[in-house]
Amino acid sequence: MHLPLNALRAFEVSARHLSFTRAAIELNVTQTAVSAQVKNLEERLGTPLFRRLPRGLALTDEGQALLPALADAFGRMAAVLGQFQGGRYREPLTVAAVGTFAVGWLMPRLEAFGREHPFIDLRLLTNNNRVDLAGEGLDYAIRFGDGAWHGTQADALQAAPLSPVCAPALARRLRAPADLLGEPLLRSYRADEWTRWFEAAGVAAPPLLRGPVFDSSLAMAAAAMQGAGVALLPAAMVAADLRHERLAQPFALEVAAGRYWLTRLQSRPVSPAMQAFRQWLLAAVAGPANALSQ
Fold first, then answer.
1. Element (H or E) spanning 84, and its range?
2. Domains of the chain
3. pLDDT over threshold 60, residue 290
4. Which of the 8 DSSP states describes residue 271?
5. pLDDT (tens digit per residue) in 69-82
6. How far apart, in whole angstroms, are the C-alpha atoms of residue 231 and residue 245?
7. Is the pLDDT at 54 greater than 60, yes or no?
8. Is the dihedral of CA 207, 211, 216, 222 positive or negative?
9. What predicted TM-score, i.e. pTM, was given to this entire model?
10. What is the mean pLDDT of residues 47-54?
11. Longest dimension (CA), the chain
12. CA 133 to chain centre
């Protein structure tokens, strides 16, 4: 069945407003034109779509059945057309990133990415390193770990060794690594990180370390800034806070715990936007001017 698009649009707008007059205002045509378009559609379908009331309109059962499909179709068309700008299509790209990398490295460089790729509509989500690529509809996820995630392709970005950081006032009373055992130790859900750092420092840590556990490194860094304790974090990711003396690094010793990875589902086709982002990101982390410590 071939139905005129203008008639379908006239019905959809009239059904939303339940008024030919208000539909005419939205469509910038006359009320008579809208009414004629709807009448034409009803004749082609062989059924009334509205009941004409003394004041306004009411949908018939047939009209109620037709409206959701048309509203969805016109909405999707509007969304796609809205992504055209300057004669080019703005391609969406959804990236999730663990909070430390998003704030400490990626966000300061988003302006540069936008200049190089102005027609990519980047949508950045932050997380606590636990993501569902398929369930969240992600093109990419930047995660911290060993790169072994089932069903994903992973590109190594940068190592991010961990080091103690804390408020400057707290740091001033720390003379040796063993002094940390007398302070609250802020911990992540990776329970062995502090134990590994103490081993590297030559300190016999107690069998049970105590301190609040955080599911977000950003929250842990904020707690450390407020003097709640000592956090074990990638110093490179809090470099700005160290420079501005919101945090201090009492000991230079770092311990390897993993690296950041760019991951995607192996089953997800690579779009032009995905390819452009991957190439830009890998080049940026490899370049000396874009080191993580900057």
1. strand 84-85
2. 5-81 (1.10.10.10), 88-160+258-290 (3.40.190.10), 162-243 (3.40.190.10)
3. no
4. P
5. 999 998 888 777 76
6. 15
7. yes
8. negative
9. 0.65
10. 93
11. 88
12. 11
Residue 82: what pLDDT? 67
What is the token pair recorded at 264?
């995607």
CA distances 154 to 11, 95, 133, 278, Å, are 49, 14, 13, 11
Look-up: residue for tokens 């192996």? 266
H helices, E strands: number in the chain: 11, 12
In eight-state DSSP terms, residue 48 is -
Strands 120-127, 84-85: pairing is: unpaired
CA distance 155 to 96: 15
> Cα(236)–Cα(241) distance, rounded to whole angstroms?
10
Q: How far apart are CA 187 and CA 175, in angstroms?
A: 21
Q: How far apart are the C-alpha atoms of 252 and 234, rounded to whole Å?
A: 11
* Predicted pLDDT at 252: 93
Q: Average of pLDDT values for 271-275?
A: 92
138 vs 267: CA distance, rounded Å: 12
- As given in the structure block, the two tokens for residue 186 are 């802020």
